Amino acid sequence: MPKTMHVAAVEHYGKPLVLQEWKIPQPGPGQILIKTEACGVCHTDLHAAKGDWTIKAKLPFIPGHEAIGRVVAIGAGVKAVKEGDRVGVPWLHSACGHCEHCLAAWETVCAEAEFGGYTKNGGFAEYLIADPNYVAHIPANLDPKLAGPLICAGITTYKGIKETKARAGEWVVISGAGGLGHLGIQYAKVMGFQVCAVDIDDEKLAHAKTLGADLTVNMKNPGAVEEVVKGTNGGAHGVLITAPSLPAYKQGVAMTRKRGTCVLVGLPPGDFPLPAFDVATNCITVRGSFVGTRGDMAETLDFGARGLVKADIELQPLSAINTIFDRLEHGKIASRVVIDFSNAA
Ligand code: NAD
Ligand code: ZN
Ligand code: ZN
After folding, report:
1. Which atom of ligand 1 is nearest the CA belonging to 336?
2. Distances in Å between the alpha carbon of 24 and those of 29, 43, 83, 216, 280?
3. 191 SS3 class
4. Which of 17, 28, 187, 246 is most buried, by the most CB atoms less than 10 A from its CB?
5. Global pTM?
């Protein structure tokens, strides 16, 4: 095995990532080493690199939390996986396993959780360390490049849609038809919902139609919220906001049907005003949702393995990371970019 690996690291917030050679880490007791095959690029990686949130990653760090690869070395005591297994290293890198949230299978909100590509180095690297108890197990018939986006964009939207508590046949709005949203539309369709996709980009909306959206609305149109409310006969039973945009949050609450639920998953920095009177008098639930648990992960991947959802991917080399980030920031990526490591040494 080589001694060093190519990585793209954040050295300063808001500055281009630097392409460097780092020593390949060795797995300690209870850890595993993964050789990366593919890693999706999520808008969260961009927030992380810009230092957008109040809790920041310690510099320098390697982003990337849609990493898929093979286990190439295992530390002492590891039983959950073996060398050669194909696994995914998601945002939920590890959790304590014994707090009240872990015991309730809500490990995503464990206070001791570590985050892949944030508090732990991630998949914008040829190798990475993972916790075998929290990796995703990639079904044999799923291409690693297609699996990448499922372990963040897929699980987050699948779980978020479940959290709307809407029932099959009802209306679900997916706000933001980008990396998360293009998968959210597909999950919502296979879960039996009527789907309205909203975005601010006509090309993304045209694509949403091809993915099965029953109704699409450009939120830049005057009267867009009213158009959604009319098109869904009174507002959507469930609204999932993936857009990294505070105006989208406000619009999302306004599109929610009386007694419906608006789920927030986009992570724009800042606050947005909730219309207290409308939320109270219409008995609307506004709820946050954060990636998904290991149980959600297995379900998420199963939809992919059965060919019911499929990420639309554009392959790029690791060296293109700064151009990818620039395009992501300006809404110029059709769905998801996946870094392809298959030709890497
Ligand atoms: P993306 O850039 O691929 O997609 C965002 C989409 O939102 C784009 O299509 C954009 O045109 C659209 N948009 C922008 N403003 C809008 C508006 N006002 N109304 C409707 N659409 C609008 O980003 P992504 O990778 O899909 O990530 C989206 C967000 O979700 C990011 O903030 C990311 O950090 C967050 N995220 C959260 C979780 C979680 O667990 N809560 C998990 C993954 C990602
Ligand atoms: Zn993500
Ligand atoms: Zn815990």
Report:
1. 3
2. 16, 26, 17, 46, 54
3. coil
4. 187
5. 0.98
* Ligand whose nearest atom lies closest to the CA of 98: 3
Residues 157-176 have pLDDT tens digits of 999 999 999 999 999 999 99
Which candidate, 18, 34, 36, places its Cα nearest to that of 26?
A: 34
Radius of gyration over every alpha carbon of the chain, rounded to an integer in angstroms: 20
Q: How confident is the model at residue 263 (pLDDT cuts 50, 70, 90)?
A: very high
Summarised one tens digit per residue, pLDDT across range 93-124 is 999 999 999 999 999 999 999 999 999 999 99
Q: How many CB atoms lie within 10 A of CB 206?
A: 12
CA-to-CA dists, residue 207 to 5, 183, 211, 215, 289, angstroms? 37, 11, 6, 12, 25
pLDDT classification of 345: cutoffs 50, 70, 90:
very low
Cα dihedral 78/82/88/91 (nearest 10): 0
What is the DSSP secondary structure assignment for residue 289, as one 8-state letter? -
β strands within 91-210, DSSP E: 92-94, 114-115, 127-130, 136-137, 171-175, 194-199
Atom of ligand 1 nearest to the CA of 153: 43
Which-ligand-closest: CA of 242? 1
Residue nearest atom 12 in ligand 1 by C-alpha distance: 176
Cα(318)–Cα(265) distance, integer angstroms: 27
Amino acid at 300: T
DSSP secondary structure of 68-86: EEEEEEE-TT--S--TT-E
- The identity of residue 59, as a single letter, is L
* 185 and 208 Cβ atoms separated by less than 8 Å: yes
* Residue pair 122/5 in contact by the 8 Å Cβ criterion: no
- The separation between CA 252 and the C-alpha centre of its own chain, rounded to angstroms, equals 19
Each residue of 165-207: pLDDT tens digit? 999 999 999 999 999 999 999 999 999 999 999 999 999 999 9
Domains assigned to the chain? 4-138+312-340 (3.90.180.10), 154-288 (3.40.50.720)
